[in-house]
Design brief:
Layout lengths: L2 E5 L2 E3 L5 E8 L6 E8 L5 E8 L5 E3 L7 E6 L4 E6 L8 E9 L14 E2 L3 E5 L2
Parallel strand pairs: 2-11
Antiparallel strand pairs: 1-3, 3-8, 4-5, 4-9, 5-6, 7-8, 9-10, 9-11
């Protein structure tokens, strides 16, 4: 069974950090585009970042550039999202998603992804 499982969410103060994990099971992430999406309360889901497992190419939304870092550990079949300098507006449910291929400029189109995790909640509040 192909599955993505996110973890690492929680409550953090503004300016703090969290590291989200996306563990894949039932398939290997070779030659996949893996994206992270965020859905804030009452808003549509938006693409945050993407990484191509084949060559490590990454994309970031302007709102997170310089603060978030996406990475992949092929040995453990896990993708990470290191989030630093968190802001209140980063609050939401974070999802990872995967599709065979490579990330491109259209990485934030959630309809392009085949596999989705269940999401992990991130709350940034003082």
């Amino acid at each position: 069974q192909l599955q993505l499982v996110e973890s690492g969410g929680g409550l953090v103060q503004p300016g703090g950090s969290l590291r989200l994990s996306c563990a894949a099971s039932g398939f290997t992430l070779d030659y996949y585009a893996i994206g992270w999406f965020r859905q804030a309360p009452g808003k549509e889901r938006e693409g945050v970042s993407c990484i191509s497992s084949s060559d490590g190419t990454t994309y970031y939304a302007d709102s997170v550039k310089g603060r978030f870092t996406i990475s992949i550990d092929n040995a453990t079949n896990t993708v990470y999202l290191q989030m630093n300098s968190l802001k209140v507006e980063d609050t939401g449910v974070f999802y990872c998603a995967a599709v065979p291929g490579w990330c491109s400029g259209s990485y934030s189109s959630d309809g392009d992804y085949d596999y989705w995790g269940q999401g992990t909640h991130v709350t940034v509040s003082s």
